[in-house]
Amino acid sequence: MILLAVAKTSQVIVEELEFSPLERKIYDSLYLTVKRNFEQLDAKGLVGKNYTHILAMLMRYRFI
Fold first, then answer.
1. Distances from the Cα of 2 to the Cαs of 15, 18, 43, 48, 64, in angstroms?
2. How far is CA 1 from CA 15, 38, 53, in A?
3. Is the pTM higher than 0.85?
4. 30 neighbors 64 (Cβ within 8 angstroms)
5. Which CA distances in Å does 30 have to 20, 25, 35, 52?
6. What is the pLDDT of residues 1-60, one digit of tens each?
7. What SS3 class is residue 4?
8. Residue partners of 26: CB distance under 8 A and separation at least 6
């Protein structure tokens, strides 16, 4: 499930969308990759030093 919010002047429209099985598979795969990368950085204590890398990972994840 994904929530999509579109703002028009002072109106906000929120729609709840369901992934197709293929979209869900792609989304879950990317989610697990990003999560593993973050956990590796966190385990090494590098989260604060690599925030730009983490933001880039989130941006890629966002556009799915």
1. 8, 7, 29, 28, 10
2. 10, 23, 26
3. no
4. yes
5. 15, 9, 8, 18
6. 666 666 666 777 788 889 899 989 988 998 898 889 889 888 988 887 777 877 777 777
7. strand
8. 64
